[in-house]
Amino acid sequence: MQIAADIAAKAKKIKFLILDVDGVMTDNRLYYSDDGQEIKSFYTRDGHGMVLLKKSGVDIGIITGRKSNLVAKRCQDLKIEHLYQGVPDKLPSFLELVEKLGLELEQIAYIGDDILDLPILMRVGFSVTPADGEEEVKTRVDYTSSYIGGKGVVREVCEIIMRSQDTWQQHMDFYMRGLAE
């Protein structure tokens, strides 16, 4: 993976990654069963990227406009403690989280796909949108992923951060150790 020097410099400073859900962790579609149950699909490689990123010392949070038991369950599975749901105006929750964590804005990355994410995207140290993010968003972020929402954007950003912080190799070494025996 080739990482541009300006992107690597931003990613190297990151201590906290914040994610939107619909259009970032999912494919931006809403599915409903006949009985009204909401269904979402999460990409397991994105989840594994988040697990590795947390093991590397970068924490993760979620701020989403919709409220869903599925998102709470996914956060529980991934041990994500910082979850803000049902907040269509995300900025107050973001500012509360920044104050709570005591981080500088340059230490925070955010992945968002729509114009409602712009107030946060325009403030953080490393801003990212998926390949299928809104055009208005693409013109205002540091990086547009080569992956679409719900299909690898989160994993790519996790890897960019880990590679920029020189923590990726420890994970590769862990998985490759069995080959050396």
Give an account of the 3D structure.
This protein has 181 residues and is an alpha/beta fold. It is built from eight helices and eight strands, in the order H-E-E-E-H-E-H-E-H-E-H-E-H-E-H-H. The strands form two sheets. The chain has a six-stranded parallel β-sheet, sandwiched between helices. Helix 1 crosses helix 7 and helix 2 packs parallel to helix 7. The longest helix is centred in the N-terminal third of the chain and has 12 residues, at 44-55. The model has no long low-confidence stretch (mean pLDDT 95). Substrate binds at residue 22. Keywords: Hydrolase, Lipopolysaccharide biosynthesis, Magnesium, Metal-binding. It holds the Pfam family Hydrolase_3.
Question: What is the rounded Rg?
Answer: 16 Å
Largest sheet: 6 strands, parallel
As an assembly, this protein is single chain
CATH topology: Rossmann fold
Share in helix: 25-40%
Number of domain units: 1
Strand order of the largest sheet: 5-4-1-6-7-8
Number of strand segments: 8
- Beta strand %: 5-15%
- Round the mean pLDDT to the nearest integer and report it: 95
Q: What is the element string, with H for helices and E for strands?
A: HEEEHEHEHEHEHEHH
- Under CATH, the homologous superfamily reads HAD superfamily/HAD-like
Regions with pLDDT < 50 over 5+ consecutive residues? none
Question: CATH first level: which class?
Answer: Alpha Beta
Organism: Thiomicrorhabdus xiamenensis
GO biological process, one term: lipopolysaccharide biosynthetic process
Catalytic activity: 3-deoxy-alpha-D-manno-2-octulosonate-8-phosphate + H2O = 3-deoxy-alpha-D-manno-oct-2-ulosonate + phosphate
Cofactor: Mg(2+)
